[in-house]
Amino acid sequence: MAAIRITGSDTSTGDLTLQDSNGNSATNFNAQRGHVITWEIEPGSGVSALTGFAQENVNGNTNVFSSYPAQQGNSSNWQGTVDANLGSSNSYTDTYEISWQDTQGNSHTYDPTIKVNPIPVS
User: Fold this and answer.
1) Which of 17, 36, 91, 119 could form an S-S bond across to 8 if both were Cys, CB 3.0 to 4.6 Å?
2) Domain containing 95: what range?
Protein backbone atom coordinates (compact mmCIF):
# COMPACT_ATOMS: atom_id res chain seq x y z
CA MET A 1 0.00 0.00 0.00
CA ALA A 2 1.19 3.50 -0.80
CA ALA A 3 -0.05 6.90 0.30
CA ILE A 4 0.00 10.17 -1.58
CA ARG A 5 -0.54 13.03 0.84
CA ILE A 6 -1.96 16.34 -0.38
CA THR A 7 -0.06 18.89 1.69
CA GLY A 8 -0.64 22.14 -0.18
CA SER A 9 -2.50 23.86 -3.00
CA ASP A 10 -2.33 26.88 -5.27
CA THR A 11 -5.77 28.20 -6.21
CA SER A 12 -4.33 30.49 -8.92
CA THR A 13 -2.93 27.53 -10.91
CA GLY A 14 -4.88 24.55 -9.54
CA ASP A 15 -1.60 22.88 -8.58
CA LEU A 16 -1.47 20.55 -5.61
CA THR A 17 1.56 19.71 -3.51
CA LEU A 18 1.73 15.90 -3.37
CA GLN A 19 4.11 14.00 -1.11
CA ASP A 20 4.81 10.33 -0.54
CA SER A 21 5.08 8.80 2.94
CA ASN A 22 8.78 9.87 3.10
CA GLY A 23 7.97 13.52 2.36
CA ASN A 24 9.29 13.36 -1.23
CA SER A 25 7.38 14.91 -4.11
CA ALA A 26 4.70 12.60 -5.51
CA THR A 27 3.80 14.76 -8.51
CA ASN A 28 5.57 12.12 -10.64
CA PHE A 29 4.87 9.07 -8.49
CA ASN A 30 6.58 5.71 -9.05
CA ALA A 31 4.16 2.89 -8.30
CA GLN A 32 4.43 -0.87 -8.28
CA ARG A 33 2.11 -3.37 -9.89
CA GLY A 34 -0.72 -4.45 -7.56
CA HIS A 35 -0.20 -1.61 -5.06
CA VAL A 36 -3.18 0.12 -3.53
CA ILE A 37 -2.64 3.90 -3.54
CA THR A 38 -4.53 6.16 -1.14
CA TRP A 39 -4.76 9.93 -1.65
CA GLU A 40 -5.06 11.70 1.72
CA ILE A 41 -5.85 15.39 2.32
CA GLU A 42 -3.63 16.84 5.03
CA PRO A 43 -4.91 19.55 7.41
CA GLY A 44 -3.83 23.03 6.33
CA SER A 45 -3.46 22.02 2.67
CA GLY A 46 -6.17 24.41 1.50
CA VAL A 47 -8.09 21.47 0.00
CA SER A 48 -11.54 20.77 1.39
CA ALA A 49 -12.38 17.80 -0.85
CA LEU A 50 -11.33 15.69 -3.79
CA THR A 51 -14.25 15.45 -6.21
CA GLY A 52 -13.00 13.11 -8.91
CA PHE A 53 -10.22 11.41 -10.83
CA ALA A 54 -10.01 11.00 -14.61
CA GLN A 55 -7.42 9.78 -17.08
CA GLU A 56 -6.00 12.53 -19.28
CA ASN A 57 -6.15 12.12 -23.04
CA VAL A 58 -2.40 12.46 -23.60
CA ASN A 59 -0.40 10.77 -26.37
CA GLY A 60 1.33 7.67 -24.94
CA ASN A 61 -0.81 7.67 -21.80
CA THR A 62 -1.72 4.26 -20.35
CA ASN A 63 -4.32 3.58 -17.69
CA VAL A 64 -2.25 1.83 -14.99
CA PHE A 65 -5.22 1.21 -12.68
CA SER A 66 -7.24 -1.98 -12.43
CA SER A 67 -9.47 -0.12 -9.97
CA TYR A 68 -9.59 3.60 -10.81
CA PRO A 69 -9.39 5.93 -7.78
CA ALA A 70 -12.71 6.27 -5.94
CA GLN A 71 -13.79 7.91 -2.70
CA GLN A 72 -13.58 5.63 0.33
CA GLY A 73 -16.98 5.71 2.01
CA ASN A 74 -17.69 9.06 3.68
CA SER A 75 -13.99 9.81 4.22
CA SER A 76 -11.97 12.41 2.34
CA ASN A 77 -9.58 9.67 1.14
CA TRP A 78 -9.61 8.25 -2.37
CA GLN A 79 -8.10 4.90 -3.29
CA GLY A 80 -7.10 3.10 -6.48
CA THR A 81 -5.26 -0.13 -7.34
CA VAL A 82 -2.39 -0.35 -9.81
CA ASP A 83 -3.01 -3.18 -12.27
CA ALA A 84 -1.00 -6.24 -11.19
CA ASN A 85 -1.20 -7.62 -14.76
CA LEU A 86 0.72 -4.85 -16.53
CA GLY A 87 3.46 -6.34 -18.70
CA SER A 88 6.58 -6.84 -16.58
CA SER A 89 9.11 -5.77 -19.24
CA ASN A 90 7.43 -2.44 -20.06
CA SER A 91 7.26 0.97 -18.43
CA TYR A 92 3.86 2.69 -18.20
CA THR A 93 2.94 6.31 -17.54
CA ASP A 94 -0.53 7.52 -16.56
CA THR A 95 -1.21 11.26 -16.54
CA TYR A 96 -4.40 11.65 -14.58
CA GLU A 97 -6.56 14.53 -13.45
CA ILE A 98 -7.52 15.23 -9.85
CA SER A 99 -10.59 17.41 -9.46
CA TRP A 100 -10.57 19.20 -6.13
CA GLN A 101 -12.32 21.88 -4.14
CA ASP A 102 -10.62 24.61 -2.12
CA THR A 103 -11.75 25.80 1.31
CA GLN A 104 -13.83 28.56 -0.34
CA GLY A 105 -15.79 25.98 -2.37
CA ASN A 106 -14.12 26.76 -5.72
CA SER A 107 -13.33 23.89 -8.11
CA HIS A 108 -9.89 23.20 -9.61
CA THR A 109 -8.04 20.45 -11.47
CA TYR A 110 -4.46 19.19 -11.32
CA ASP A 111 -2.63 16.73 -13.61
CA PRO A 112 0.08 14.63 -11.93
CA THR A 113 1.54 11.36 -13.28
CA ILE A 114 2.03 7.83 -12.05
CA LYS A 115 4.77 5.69 -13.55
CA VAL A 116 5.14 1.92 -13.32
CA ASN A 117 8.65 0.74 -14.18
CA PRO A 118 9.68 -2.61 -15.69
CA ILE A 119 10.36 -5.42 -13.23
CA PRO A 120 14.14 -5.98 -13.08
CA VAL A 121 15.30 -9.35 -14.37
CA SER A 122 17.14 -11.30 -11.67
Assistant:
1) 17
2) 2-116
